[in-house]
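Forwarding the complex inputs:
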Amino acid sequence: MNHDAYDDNYIRSILSSVKSIAMIGASPVNVRPSYFAFKYLAQRGYDMIPVNPGHVGKSLLGKPFVASLADIGRPVDMIDIFRNSSHIMPVVDDALTLSPPPKVIWMQLGARDDAAAEKAEAAGLKVVMNRCPKIEYGRLSSEISWMGVNSRTLSSKRAPIPTQGMRLSLNRMSVGGGATAASDRAAKNKSEPT
Amino acid sequence: MTDRLPGFSTLAVHAGAQPDPTTGARVTPIYQTTSFVFNDADHAASLFGLQAFGNIYTRIGNPTTAVLEERIAALEGGTAALAVASGHAAQVVVLQQLLMPGDEFIAARKLYGGSINQFTHAFKSFGWNVAWADPDDIGSFERAVTPRTKAIFIESIANPAGSITDIEPIAEVARKAGVPLIVDNTLATPYLIRPIDHGADIVVHSLTKFLGGHGNSLGGIIVDGGTFDWSKDNKYPMLSEPRPEYHGIRIQETFGNFAFAIACRVLGLRDLGPALSPFNAFMILTGIETLPLRMQKHCENAKAVAEFLAGHSAVASVNYAGLASDKYNKLARKYAPKGAGAVFTFSLRGGYDAGVNLVSNLKLFSHLANVGDTRSLVIHPASTTHSQLDDAAKVRSGAAPDVVRLSIGIEDKEDLIADLEQALSA
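Prediction (whole assembly, two chains):
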């Protein structure tokens, strides 16, 4: 699996198939990126579970916080990790003890742990690193185009009108693999020691 | 299965556009409205807090304009774009994200005369100081770097003489200095040159010129290459630091590789206000659909006219990078293999007076201060676009008193040559 650049169809198949997402590091602070992503994905109809031991007893947009993956108490399709790269491996270890295990490990924009990815993939999970599911969903549905963002997709079909709780169509023609060639090169240079 | 990658002409027609969700209209509608209703109070708060994608007010974004933005981002190979009211507005908005009072930026000396004025005078009152460098001398950029340098600004094909800038070594100077390279790609358009592929971090355009292409609508745009790491030090607080106007959001952390375009929108355009009219966005979008065809014709005609002038006894010299004998021909072959553009200058043996006579004797060429129109245009830079420069600066920027600038249109080239011939012998 090439984790430097993802094929759109790989991301599309994940976002189209998962129904429940546990977000590690979800924040109740409404200017944090995790809050943005949690709210957006909940509005797009995903069953969101906030995981953050610091906020147990509280709720995020009506969903009660749990302390750990083990406390969810029901199967979950995807784990979205909003933690620094150095905190990824223990989460993957925890995820692999779940029964049934999740289908997807997703590491947020800026987070990457190749060893953890390899371990999850060896157990049959799909892995996405250094991407935001909100941005990817918005991009593949072209909703993000309202912000002038290059969705790298085309469509001659009538666009659906997004409403609360609705899954937008992700079935567009892809122009590339998410990021542009130049931004991919820049991201790669950044991850290499200078 | 991976979809095949569409080519430039397909993107020029389709990128960003999709049949309208409510009516099914195939052409992008003109959303001529100032504002957009919210679904409910929470939706409104989400939009204002940058938590949701959507429309609030046309000063910040508009669905017609958004199609234009995505289309140009796609054509330039950038991550996102922001359209504004003019090319000049694009430059203000870009530099507002990068410079604080007392900071500096380095600009190539060969620029559109209006940019030279803006950088020298208007920006001075903001405390943004320009240091000039010579695009033909890479060392002059290196020597101009100081600890307060925040950006480097060049034109890909430079006004007025159509000279080609060696983008890659200048991008390397910017990389070493840890500052973004901004390229004004107006005269080339992404059809001829894609600066991000050569190391640019930000591309700006006057959409008024070849992109819109028909001389009917002003506009400007900023393209984010998605290549610059704004958070590696605290040099760019607009992007890396918590923003008080958004309750402490950090723009790069939240928006990743299109953070610069978002900063330009929510910190620049929102607060400075140079929004593009949706009607102009529509006109420019329509123009872009034929950009590849028009640029081919512009370049073909320009080369024919330049060759004609080079062989004319009244002409002292022709500066067109598409001519094999031109100083910039090697760079043109590297950066613009499909054509060297359609704006160039020539000088007349008869000097200033011959230039004035030529302009008044032409019957098909229009004497006006624009370039990149379907119509062929002529101007005498020394008395118009570059008139505010002193004589030495005129010569340095390629606008000496005997120089005439042409912008070649898409008419029949035989008619353009005949018009020049009669005017030169009149």
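The radius of gyration of chain A is 16 Å.
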